[in-house]
Amino acid sequence: YYKKFIEFINRRGIIISVLAVVAGAADIALFLLMRYGHVSSTHLDAVHSVYCIFMIMAVYFVACKLKHRVNMVIASLDKSSYNIYLWHVLFIFVMDYIMERTGFVINSTIY
To answer: H helices within the chain, ranges in order?
Structure first.
C-alpha cells in the first residue's frame, strides 16, 4: 500500500497542497467565528481534522520532492552535531559573560 500511497501523493500533490491551504483558512475562520460567538463549535473538530490530514499529506509531498536535497542537509548536520553538542556550553558561558558586561542581563545566573 505504501507504493500506491506515494504514487497518489505524487500525482495529486498540487491539489492536496491547495486543499491544505483552503482547509487551514476554513479552520482559522471557523475558529474565529466560534470565538466571537457567531457560530457554534459543532464542526470545528471535523474541519480541524480535515486540515491536519491534508497538511500531513502536503508536507509528505514536499518531502518526497526534496528528499535528495534534504538528505544532504541532514548528513551535514549529522557530521557536525557532536561538535555543536560539545561547544554549546562554552558558547552559553561566553554569551552570558558578554551580556553581563554590556548590561543586557540584570541577573545572569546559569542553572
So the answer is: 2-11, 13-35, 44-65, 67-102
